[in-house]
């Protein structure tokens, strides 16, 4: 044997001895896990603290871990429904035994939920409140925090009808409940009522609590009829500074297109049907939708720092968001900066919280007419032409004399609209503990919004308003909101009895539209756009301030209070009242009172429930309350004078005429919404399965509505008055389950379902002899569709009721479409009289909405996907109607659907032919992530990398671009051509904590 071989054998033998010695220093650990009743606990996770060694209990509640290092160590056991437990142990050579006796946990019930002017434990809640945290938020390119909640809360509809990064969302909670006022919920951000949601970056949000029933929202009185959403942001914590970064980069593409003919298909159709296209409009292959769209690149970055001592804590963050729209020249750029300081003083009896947030938005907007143009413009026409005839349009191809026919690329590039929006919020909160149980809170906040808009139409714009002279408009407006809140909270617990009380005062002064709006024409050059209005040359009679805004000031003063009682956390009762006085309403109705009462019975706390193992929580809730809606402009209750069309001669000079533009109504008052709510909260098998079932009945009275009135005796022909009514009834179900869980793998799922039935009541006002029996809404405005509407507001029916002609089919021989009158008579299109021959033919509001969230975790990997949708809603597809003009295919493009349908009669009336099923199921987002181990890193505490897709697919029968059209207003569910395409996005993101 050579020396080298001998040395190798000796080395190998030495390594074997060392390995065997190391192995002998390890031992095994085993035991059993039972609960406080002696029942075995299956699937509990056992972890050697500070190491990756773990296992789970088997069907007998037993566990075994081999090769446990010798010496002192700590063993941790975790299980849903039980309190986590740490036990120290000295591991010796051989077999070691460690048993666990777990206590039932009510961690979920101990969670703190934000309520009006305070907080409460989840188990103490008597109203309907849904809480959503960062783990449940929607992932993707989110331009506004409200989109984080889309589909996550039963009964809350967050509808963003299109992919425009500059557009907001339509939000409804438990159905529409107003005919005139806004339906948006009230936002309360870190205790500041009415704060702008754009002041918060999604990565800074800790939780969003949605108050849904009036027994919860009544404490906010006149502003809470549409629900209240509490937003809680990150605060500083005592300890070492924590630096966090999160960011992503994304690409967005058009998810779906208008299905119109290509150049080749159009050329073939024209030839097959004996149509002739003008020579100037043929010979080219232009995809107009491609010409105006692009692949959008977006990115988001959030940097935050928290830390401090027990006495002084701080938080600071800055967020940069850049969302490039899929339509060229549309984008949004936002910077949000937040700073917070929490200071304790006088032995922690005084707690001060200072918050300053600033949001700076800059956006570029496009004229939505480009979408109609991109669908209708002939694909055989050129984008530009060298012909001298098009020089006045800067070489863009145009067709003079054709109605509503604009080159979309020209419109896109010859209209500039830039907006900036700067919002500042500063608040100071002081909590003083007067004595144990009594806290006095004062909050002062100042919010200022500065809005600036520059709009310019080039001198070569095809529109007659700008052609040859240009048109510019500039807006600069400021809104200021000042709030002072002062309230006291008192809590007393004695034996099994607990009592709490709150009383407060609120003062809010608002000043909006403080600024100027001006326009000008007659520019010699387009170089300066809308920056210098004075460079225009105004023609005689041109009024540059025709849309000049008037300042809107309002004052809201309130007193409010709440009392609560619970016995042994078993029987709970809460009552509140708020008295609001608003300057927005008539002198006879400035003040209103909004009461509420609610109670809960925690059945699971009863003695007869203690010997069962199924329900770990069972709570029955009931409540009733009244809230209001004052979301209208100030001064709607007084007489207003303004300029009239025309002038008069006075002392030899022509003077502008002034007259009444608004009638006085001293009885104008709030909209009142009363709601009964009943709910059942349950948790089974110690948290393995749980959920909530809700029933509500919401009645809204004294709706604000604008009526036609005779003139005289009224000085103006319109009057805003109260009197109409509306109801919403529904059921909401939320179910969550831990489907499977062990030490390596877990699967959790949550499903929510909401069914709402909306019905319009009376449309009569509270003023004698003023009212309407019905009202037609949803003006369509297609070429040749004079006076055509698609919807009706009708007592006994829901908002969004389609009221159109009943389409029966197409007569191939006569080449006529056939309709049925309400009398049953079959007639042709020219024999239909609108709207006398129309009928109720569909409904825009869905029968129910749903969402299904799924979360998987395998070791360091995590996967989440979320589906949502709605069922039973219908859409009036005006876009399809506009693209169904087969006889006019020589002057406008048509859809492939229309070609397949083969109806050679131009539609000129609203009919059920264009009402389609709008139900859909959408894979809203899917996210795959990996969390890296950072135990070996001195500075990095957490690192996660993830990829995400948004709007990955949609299952629907709807033939339009997207079934998720707007559900707001009095005519929801109308797809009327001007539609920014929905996007499909893919992103790569990272989250780091130092």
From TrEMBL:
PROSITE patterns: TONB_DEPENDENT_REC_3. Keywords: Cell outer membrane, Membrane, Signal, TonB box, Transmembrane, Transmembrane beta strand, Transport. It is a multi-pass membrane protein. The keyword Transport applies. Residues 1-24 form the signal peptide. Gene3D superfamilies: Carboxypeptidase-like, regulatory domain, TonB-dependent receptor, beta-barrel domain, TonB-dependent receptor, plug domain. Residues 371-952 form the TonB-dependent receptor-like beta-barrel domain. It holds the Pfam family Plug. It is found in: Cell outer membrane. Residues 122-228 form the TonB-dependent receptor plug domain. Belongs to the TonB-dependent receptor family. This is SusC/RagA family TonB-linked outer membrane protein. It comes from Sphingobacterium anhuiense.
């Amino acid at each position: 044997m050579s020396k080298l071989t001998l040395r190798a054998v000796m080395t190998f033998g030495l390594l074997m001895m060392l390995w065997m010695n190391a192995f002998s220093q390890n031992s095994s650990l085993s035991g059993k896990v039972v609960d406080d009743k002696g029942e075995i606990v299956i699937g509990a996770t056992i972890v050697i603290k500070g190491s990756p060694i773990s296992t789970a209990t088997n069907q007998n509640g037993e566990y075994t871990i081999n090769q446990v290092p010798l010496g002192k160590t700590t063993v941790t056991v975790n299980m849903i429904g039980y309190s986590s437990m740490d036990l120290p142990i000295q591991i010796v050579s051989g077999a070691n035994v460690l048993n666990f006796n777990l206590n039932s946990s009510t961690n979920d019930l101990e969670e703190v939920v934000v309520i009006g002017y305070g907080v409460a434990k989840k188990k103490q809640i008597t109203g309907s409140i849904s809480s959503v945290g960062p783990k449940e938020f929607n992932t993707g390119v989110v331009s506004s925090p409200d989109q984080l909640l889309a589909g996550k809360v039963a009964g809350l509809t967050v509808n963003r009808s299109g992919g425009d990064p500059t557009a907001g969302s339509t939000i409804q909670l438990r159905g529409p409940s107003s005919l005139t006022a806004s339906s948006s919920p009230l936002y309360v951000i870190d205790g500041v009522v009415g704060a702008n949601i754009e002041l918060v970056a999604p990565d800074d949000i800790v939780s969003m609590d949605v108050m849904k029933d009036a027994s919860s929202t009544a404490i906010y009185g006149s502003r809470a009829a549409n629900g209240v959403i509490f937003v809680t942001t990150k605060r500083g914590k005592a300890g070492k500074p924590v630096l966090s970064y999160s960011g992503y980069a994304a690409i967005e593409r058009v998810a779906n297109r208008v299905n119109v003919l290509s150049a080749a298909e159009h050329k073939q159709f024209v030839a097959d049907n004996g149509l002739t296209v003008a020579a100037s409009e043929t010979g080219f292959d232009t995809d107009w939708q491609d010409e105006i769209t692009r692949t959008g690149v977006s990115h988001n970055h959030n940097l935050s720092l928290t830390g401090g001592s027990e006495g002084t804590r701080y938080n600071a963050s800055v967020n940069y968001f850049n969302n490039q729209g899929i339509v060229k020249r549309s984008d949004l750029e936002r910077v949000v900066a937040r700073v917070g300081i929490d200071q304790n003083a006088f032995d922690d009896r005084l707690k001060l919280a200072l918050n300053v947030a600033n949001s700076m938005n800059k956006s570029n907007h496009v004229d939505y007419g480009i979408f109609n143009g991109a669908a209708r413009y002939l694909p055989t026409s050129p984008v530009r032409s060298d012909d001298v005839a098009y020089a006045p349009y800067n070489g863009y191809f145009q067709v003079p004399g054709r109605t509503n026919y604009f080159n979309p690329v020209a419109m896109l590039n010859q209209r500039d609209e830039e907006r900036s929006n700067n919002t500042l919020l500063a608040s100071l909160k002081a909590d003083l503990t007067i004595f144990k149980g009594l806290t006095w809170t004062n909050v002062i906040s100042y919010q200022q919004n500065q809005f600036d808009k520059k709009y310019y139409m080039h001198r070569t714009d095809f529109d007659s308003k700008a052609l040859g002279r240009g048109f510019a408009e500039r807006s600069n407006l400021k809104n200021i909101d000042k709030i002072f809140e002062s309230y006291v909270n008192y809590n007393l617990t004695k034996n099994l009895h607990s009592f709490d009380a709150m009383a407060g005062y609120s003062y809010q002064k608002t000043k909006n539209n403080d600024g100027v709006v001006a326009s000008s024409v007659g520019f010699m050059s387009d170089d300066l756009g809308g920056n210098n209005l004075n460079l225009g040359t105004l023609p005689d009679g041109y009024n540059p301030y025709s849309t000049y805004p008037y300042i809107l000031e309002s004052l809201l003063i309130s007193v409010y209070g709440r009392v609560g009682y619970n016995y042994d956390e078993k029987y709970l009762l809460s009552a509140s009242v708020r008295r609001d006085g608003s300057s927005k309403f008539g002198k006879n109705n400035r003040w209103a009172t909004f009461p509420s009462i609610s109670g809960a019975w925690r059945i699971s706390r009863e003695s007869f429930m203690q010997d069962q193992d199924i329900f770990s929580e069972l709570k029955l809730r009931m409540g009733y309350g009244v809230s209001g809606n004052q979301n209208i402009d100030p001064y709607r209750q007084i007489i207003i004078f303004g300029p009239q069309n025309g002038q008069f001669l006075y002392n030899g000079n022509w003077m502008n005429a002034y007259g009444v533009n608004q009638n006085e109504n001293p009885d104008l008052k709030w909209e009142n919404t009363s709601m009964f709510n009943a709910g059942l909260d349950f948790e089974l098998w110690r948290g393995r399965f749980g959920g909530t079932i809700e029933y509500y009945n919401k009645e809204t009275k004294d709706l604000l509505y604008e009526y036609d009135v005779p003139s005289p005796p009224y000085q103006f022909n319109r009057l805003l008055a109260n009197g109409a009514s509306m109801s919403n009834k529904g059921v909401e179900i939320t179910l969550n389950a831990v489907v499977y869980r062990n030490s390596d793998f877990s699967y959790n799922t949550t499903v929510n379902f909401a069914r709402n039935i909306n019905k319009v009541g009376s449309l009569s006002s509270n003023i004698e002899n003023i009212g309407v029996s019905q009202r037609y809404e949803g003006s369509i405005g297609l070429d040749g569709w004079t006076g055509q509407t698609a919807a009706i507001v009708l007592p006994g029916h829901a908002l969004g009721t389609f009221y159109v002609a009943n389409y029966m089919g197409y007569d191939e021989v006569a080449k006529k479409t056939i309709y049925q009158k309400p009398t049953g008579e079959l007639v042709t299109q020219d024999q239909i009289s609108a709207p006398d021959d129309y009928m109720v033919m569909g409904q825009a509001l869905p029968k129910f909405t749903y969402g299904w969230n799924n979360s998987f975790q395998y070791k360091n990997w995590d996967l989440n996907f979320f589906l949502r949708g709605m069922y039973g809603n219908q859409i009036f597809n005006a876009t399809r109607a506009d693209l169904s003009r087969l006889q006019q295919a020589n002057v406008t493009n048509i859809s492939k659907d229309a070609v397949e349908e083969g109806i050679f009669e131009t539609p000129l009336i609203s009919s059920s032919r264009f009402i389609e099923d709008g139900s859909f199921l959408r894979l809203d987002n899917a996210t795959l992530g990996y969390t890296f181990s950072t135990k070996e890193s001195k500075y990095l505490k957490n690192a996660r990398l993830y990829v995400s897709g948004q709007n990955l697919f949609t299952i629907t029968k709807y033939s339009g671009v997207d079934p998720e059209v707007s559900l707001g207003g009095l005519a929801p569910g109308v797809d009327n051509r001007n539609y920014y395409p929905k996007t499909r996005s893919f992103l790569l993101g990272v989250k780091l904590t130092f």
